[in-house]
Amino acid sequence: MCAARRVSPRLSGARAASETFSTAAVSPKSLQRRRKVRVAYEAPAGSDVEKAAQTEAKKQKWEPKDWRRHLDNIREMRKARDAPVDQMGAEKCFDSEAPPEVMRYQVLLSLMLSSQTRDQVTSAAMTRLREHGLTVDNILATEDATLGRLIYPVGFWKSKVRYIKETSAILKRDYRGDIPKTVAELVKLPGVGPKMAHLVMAIAWQNVSGIGVDTHVHRISNRLKWVQRETKLPEETRKALENWLPRELWSEINWLLVGFGQQICLPISPRCGECLNRDICPASGKR
Questions:
Q1: Dist. CA 170–CA 172, nearest whole Å
Q2: Of 51, 172, 195, 232, which one is the catalytic site residue?
Q3: pTM (2 decimals)?
Q4: Active-site residue, 195 included
């Protein structure tokens, strides 16, 4: 019979400790604890590090080249305020002494008439309407043929007769003769689009809800490369501008660019030689 092998108490204790350590190292609880360990460079949500990163990302938001110089130069060219829009635009077409709801109604109608129409023609039509009596009740009582004669020759005058009558009926029924207070409600009215709605909000309610983009603003924004990619429609231009232009500047962009487009940056044969931006305009010399 072979003699039993004696194990040293010291060796036995070391082996036991080794086995215990080995078992603990692979236990499920230990693995769970390892998974919860946060990597040192991962900033917790809402931390100062994360907020700083968000701030930096905002700073890197796209902006057009030289846009502040463009804007300052356009302000200089428009300081006389002598373009047609300054004398006959929607802000000049309503009766400032009329009751507030009547004034707002007249602002809305002047903008409805202005679509695809020169300011001079819109202003003349508004003068005739005001002499006739430009209130919701009076327009609803006016024959379509008479209304057509009053607004002719505004663009698409036949369609606008229908839009004005339908809109006036909705205002009387749903708004007690006043106009809606939100863009969402305004664009539901017949013949009212986003450009008109944002201008109504600014003029009638003194609430800047967005940039009013007409053909002038659309054209000039593309010429100056104020849009990151070329836009085909005014509504696309509005969204592109609002994505980077500081909100405190939204209220002046429409009247600045409309007047600039009426006097210098014309649709055909723009007067680049008279423009203060001729040396920094991407479109200068290309037309």
A1: 5
A2: 195
A3: 0.78
A4: yes
